[in-house]
Amino acid sequence: MSCTFNLPINGTPEAFEEKVKTAVEKAGGQLSQDNGRAVFTISTPVGRVVGNYAIEGTDAKVDVTDKPFFLSCDKIKEFLENYLK
Questions:
Q1: Residue-wise DSSP of 21-72
Q2: Predicted confidence band of residue 10 (pLDDT cuts 50, 70, 90)
Q3: What is the dihedral of CA 69, 43, 30, 37, to 10 degrees?
Q4: Which residues lie below 8 Å from residue 77, measured CB to CB, with a gap of 6+?
Q5: 2 backbone dihedrals φ, ψ, rounded to 5°
Q6: Contact partners, residue 56, CB within 8 Å, separation at least 6
Q7: Residue 25 half-sphere exposure, CB side, CA atoms within 13 Å?
Q8: Is residue 7 a contact partner of residue 59, using CB atoms and an 8 Å limit?
Q9: 76 vs 68: CA distance, rounded Å
Q10: Residue 52: which of 43, 61, 16, 6 has the closest Cα?
Q11: 13-69 pLDDT, tens per residue?
Q12: Is the pLDDT of residue 85 over 90?
């Protein structure tokens, strides 16, 4: 099951991308960034989360393409919002 949501960018797009990079690396994940777009894979205790984002204006459009069944889209969004504040 996939899900799509927007995350507000607080600050510059560059600062947002640096926060994402730090978060993914800290979680032991993989990230490939290129000019406001990225593909990521993060392992969690219940399975891996795979997705991508694209910066569009003052938001990042996040598309989670693969996730564990027991991990809701709302929980993923909530975690990212809190971590990237």
A1: HHHHHHTT-EEEEETTEEEEEEEETTEEEEEEEEEETTEEEEEEEE--TTS-
A2: confident
A3: 30
A4: 3, 5, 7, 62
A5: -105, 165
A6: 6
A7: 8
A8: yes
A9: 11
A10: 61
A11: 999 999 999 988 988 899 999 999 999 999 888 999 999 999 999 999 999 999 999
A12: no
- Per the structure block, which two tokens stand in for 15? 């600062």
Domain ranges of the chain: 3-83
pLDDT of 61: 97
| Pairwise CA distance, residues 77 & 83, whole Å | 10
Please determine, for residue 11, whether its predicted confidence score (pLDDT) is greater than 80.
Answer: yes
Q: Which residue has the tokens 């991990």?
A: 71
The CATH number of the structural domain formed by 3-83 is 3.30.310.80
